[in-house]
Amino acid sequence: MTGAFQAMITVGALQRGYYAAIPATYDPAVPRALVFGYHGSTYTGKMMRPYLDMEKAPLVDKAVFIYPDGLPPASDPNKAWDLSANGMDMPFFDAMVAKMSADYCIDPKRIFVAGQSYGGLMTEAVGCLRGDVVRAIAAVAGSGPNNASQCKGPVAAWITHGMDDMNVAFTSGEKSRDFWVMKNGCTTTTAQGTPMQCQNYQGCMPGYPVIWCPHVNETGHQEPPWGKVAVREFFASF
Asked: Which of 15, 132, 183, 223 is an S-S bond match for 152, by CB 3.0 to 4.6 Å?
């Protein structure tokens, strides 16, 4: 089935929701990437779909898209995701990979994860804890990973953070950058990337780049206007 739709899946004892988008060009004989889009606090998967804006060229004809819904606890509605290794959201990710792989022709070597704000935290966590499954991540205004000692990998990483972010400290983005630089065996030398705000770290393990895109006086905590195209091109490069 192609098109966009809301659906549910049972994970353990929980009913979990997600919004899926299967492009009209989907061909069941051609393996496609599976792209996750994680929302921030107070959002839903369906709301995050237009925000991330990933279903355009050059990515749309190479992928199917899934936007999971978080289950924030009543005690803290701003906690969109459980970032822990043994929490409820890692099994949710695993279940979604299994379901989408059963229902569609998915290339298991091209599973990508993106997210903003708390979704950026979740992106970092999934990239760490499921680094043997995830090929690349794109984190916007996030932080982490918090479980560095449990990380698998390496994972290709694209990270952007506003120097004037008033919600998640810029230093959190720098720490994420430094983690992936170390994890992917990069040097501290950089070359200017595309767009010009981005820095491509040199000497990384082949196929596992780290791209760092700081910005200022643009969108603060939000994804910069050039970020959406850059993420699509980054994922489509694999």
From this structure: 132
